[in-house]
Amino acid sequence: MTQFPTLIDQIAAAVLAPAEVTENPHHRAILDVFGETQELDRQLAELAAASLPGVSTGEQLDTLTDLLVERMAAGAELSALLSTSCCCAAAYEPDPPGEYDPAEGDEPDFDPDFDGFGGFEDPEGDEFDDLHEEAVEDFLSCPSRPQTIVHACLDVFDDHGSPEYVSSAELVERLRGLPGHADPRWRYADLNTLRLSLILRRSHGVPSHRPRAADGSRYRAFRRADLLGALAD
Questions:
Q1: Are residues 222 and 168 in contact, defined by beta-carbon separation less than 8 angstroms?
Q2: From CA 68, how far away is CA 43, in angstroms rounded?
Q3: How far apart are CA 44 and CA 66, in angstroms?
Q4: Alpha-carbon gap, residue 66 to 129, rounded angstroms
Q5: Rounded to an integer, what distance in angstroms lies between the CA atom of residue 41 and that of residue 88?
Q6: Exposed e or buried b for every residue in 19-43, given b needs 16+ CB within 10 A?
Q7: Using CA atoms, how far apart are residues 206 and 179, in angstroms rounded to an integer?
Q8: How far apart are CA 138 and CA 186, in angstroms?
Q9: In the chain, where do the E strands start and end?
Q10: Is 222 helix (H, G, I), strand (E, B) or coil?
């Protein structure tokens, strides 16, 4: 999606059919986290004003505390994104001329009798291409490289004996050790519980849950059946 995520903008994009553009992942991350803070604010307001029959004051206070912690984390994440310069624009800027780069129009002055590179041989074109293709194929077929973050999460479930739930904290701890990117915005090494929730819910339709622990307390977790459903989709 490359338009602002509101109903009016989606209708405008469908009617006006603007030229397709490539969105900036950093900007998209800002929008996603901003939307998350708004959703958490809405949940906090509803919970604070709600009268929940059959729910004790202690349980309601625990839920409110959990939401407050999530909202504070989302606010901190948004502040970090807003204060971080975007690297995407710099990637398309030409490199400044180096100290030893020849000026335009100047010809390098080589000694015609210089034979300093005689010991080097140019690689054969076909042989070089074959080595490159083999390296790419080996990387893409590496069995330790998960196809998506959903596959990576399911690997964690399998390592735990395929339980119904695994906590967000446990998933993050395990996923942060993986190489590469969890999505176009964040590397696995940069994941936290908020980023994991954003990626799984918004990119794969996988919601988080709050099951009860053995001591009766609730914790944030993901359900194996939801992850399997995302693969089926």
A1: yes
A2: 10
A3: 10
A4: 54
A5: 31
A6: eeeeeebbebbbebbbebbeebeee
A7: 22
A8: 24
A9: 165-167, 221-223
A10: strand
Sign of CA dihedral 7, 8, 12, 18: negative
CB 78 within 8 A of CB 30: yes
List the Cα angle 121/126/130 in 5-degree steps. 110
| Helix 224-232 with 149-159: angle, nearest 10 deg | 140
Residue 42 DSSP code: H
pLDDT digits (tens, 9 = 90+) for 64-110: 777 787 788 878 878 877 877 765 444 434 445 454 444 555 555 55
Say how far apart CA 81 and CA 64 lie, in whole Å: 26
What is the per-residue pLDDT across 2-16, written as a single tens digit (0 to 9) for each?
555 677 777 777 777
pTM equals 0.52
3-state DSSP assignment of residue 205: coil
Query: What length is written for the chain?
Result: 233
Task: Name the residue type at position 115.
Answer: D
